[in-house]
Design brief:
The chain is mostly helical. The protein has four helices and three strands, in the order αααββαβ. The chain is rod-shaped, with a radius of gyration of 83 Å.
C-alpha cells in the first residue's frame, strides 16, 4: 500500500479552512440580532412622565373601598428564535374544496363596564412593567451573549481539536512515510549489497576459473614442451649416437679403404717398378693402351697412371662373390699440359656407384703423370677393375 504523500513546509502549519463554522456563526449572530431588534421595537421606551390625567370617581356612600389592583403576572422572557431550518419540499396540494356557505353574523356582545383605575396605581404599574421588561431584556441579552460566547468557545475548542487531529494525522502519515522510505532504502541497500556481493563472487569465480585454466594450460604446455624436449634430446642423442657410430663406421671403412688403396697403390707401384725393370708387356688390372692417333706407351707409364687414379677412387667393394670382377673403362681427353679435359664412359661395370667412383678418381688425377717421352697423348683409355 502506498503511503499518503505529505508535503512539509518550513513555516507554521496553515489553518485549514473553516467556512462551515464561520457561516453557521454568522447565521446565528444575524438571527439573534433580528430577535434583539424585534424586542427593542416591541417595548415602549418612553420615560417621560405622562401629562395630567383627569379621573372622576363616582361612588355611593355605601360602596366599600376598592380592592387593590391585581398584580399583573410576569411576562415570560422572550426565547431566542431557533435557527431557520430548510423547509422540506412541499407535496403537491390537492385541489381546494368548495368554500362553505358564510356563517351568520355574530350577535353584538355587550361591552363590559370599564372599571375606573387610580392614576397613581396605573403609573406605578406601567413603571414596574417597564422595569420588568428592561430586566427581562437585559437578562435576554446577557443570556444571548453568554450563549454566543459559549458557542464561540465550543467552536474554538472544536477547531483546536480538529487542528490537533490533523496535526497528529499529519505526524502519523509523515512517520509512516519516513518508516516506509527507510524500509525501502534499507531494502534497496540490502539488494544493492547482495547484487554487489553476487557480482564480486561471480568475478572471483570467473577469475579463479580463468587462473586455473591458465595454470592448467601452462602446466600442460610445460609438460608437452618437456616431453618434446626430452624426446628431441633423446632423438638428438640417438641421432648423435647413430651419427657417431656411422662416422666411426665410415671412418673405419675409409681408413680400411685408404689402407687397402694404399696397399694396392704400393703394390701397383712395386709392380710398375718391377715391370719397368723386367720390360714386361702389361699390368693386370690397369693399362694405358696404345693410342691409335699418338703412338703407344709402355707398361711402366700405365702403372704410374694406375697409381695416380687409385687413391681417388672412394669405393668400398663388397665381398667378392665368385670369379666376377666388374670393370669400368673410360676414355680420358688430356690437354698438352696433362690436365683432364673430358672423361667419357666407354664400358660400364654394371655398378653405377663403382663407375662414378672410378670417374672421380680419374678427375682427381690431375694432371696425369708425365710420360717418359715428354709429350701427352690426346686420348688415353683407362681400364679399372673392382678386384685387383
Amino acid at each position: 500500500m502506498t503511503p499518503p504523500i505529505i508535503r512539509h513546509r518550513s513555516g507554521p502549519p496553515a489553518t485549514p479552512p473553516n467556512n462551515d463554522n464561520r457561516n453557521a456563526l454568522i447565521l446565528a449572530v444575524a438571527v439573534h440580532l433580528l430577535l434583539l431588534v424585534a424586542l427593542i421595537l416591541g417595548v415602549n421606551w418612553r420615560t417621560e412622565a405622562p401629562g395630567p390625567v383627569e379621573v372622576q370617581l363616582w361612588a355611593d356612600g355605601n360602596s366599600p373601598v376598592a380592592p387593590p389592583p391585581t398584580p399583573q403576572p410576569e411576562q415570560p422572557k422572550p426565547q431566542p428564535k431557533p435557527e431557520p431550518q430548510p423547509e422540506p419540499e412541499k407535496a403537491p396540494e390537492p385541489p381546494p374544496p368548495p368554500p362553505p356557505p358564510p356563517p351568520p353574523p355574530p350577535e353584538p356582545e355587550a361591552q363590559p363596564k370599564t372599571e375606573e383605575v387610580d392614576p397613581e396605581i396605573a403609573i406605578q404599574e406601567a413603571k414596574k412593567k417597564r422595569e420588568q421588561e428592561e430586566k427581562a431584556r437585559e437578562a435576554a441579552e446577557a443570556k444571548e451573549k453568554a450563549r454566543l460566547e459559549e458557542e464561540r468557545k465550543q467552536a474554538e475548542l472544536k477547531e483546536k481539536k480538529r487542528l490537533e487531529q490533523e496535526r497528529q494525522a499529519a505526524e502519523k502519515a509523515a512517520a509512516e512515510k519516513a518508516a516506509a522510505a527507510k524500509a525501502a532504502a534499507d531494502k534497496a541497500a540490502a539488494e544493492k549489497a547482495a547484487a554487489e556481493k553476487a557480482a564480486a563472487d561471480k568475478a572471483a569465480a570467473e577469475k579463479k576459473a580463468k587462473d586455473d585454466a591458465a595454470k592448467k594450460a601452462a602446466a600442460e604446455k610445460a609438460a608437452t614442451e618437456k616431453a618434446a624436449a626430452e624426446k628431441a634430446a633423446a632423438d638428438k642423442a640417438a641421432a648423435a649416437k647413430a651419427a657417431a657410430e656411422k662416422a666411426a663406421a665410415e671412418k673405419a671403412a675409409a681408413e680400411k679403404a685408404a689402407a687397402a688403396k694404399k696397399a694396392a697403390a704400393d703394390k701397383a707401384l712395386k709392380d710398375a717398378f718391377r715391370n719397368d725393370a723386367l720390360g714386361a708387356a702389361g699390368i693386370p688390372g690397369g693399362t694405358a693402351d696404345r693410342n691409335q692417333a699418338g703412338g703407344g706407351r709402355d707398361n711402366g707409364y700405365a702403372a704410374k697412371v694406375r697409381a695416380c687414379i687409385l687413391p681417388g677412387v672412394a669405393y668400398q667393394p663388397p665381398p667378392r662373390n665368385g670369379s666376377a670382377n666388374p670393370t669400368a673403362q673410360y676414355r680420358v681427353q688430356l690437354g698438352t699440359d696433362g690436365k683432364v679435359n673430358g672423361v667419357n664412359l666407354t664400358q660400364s661395370s654394371g655398378n653405377p656407384a663403382f663407375d662414378r667412383a672410378v670417374e672421380t678418381g680419374i678427375r682427381r688425377c690431375n694432371p696425369f703423370p708425365k710420360p717418359s717421352t715428354g709429350g701427352y697423348d690426346k686420348f688415353i683409355d683407362v681400364v679399372h677393375k673392382m678386384y685387383d
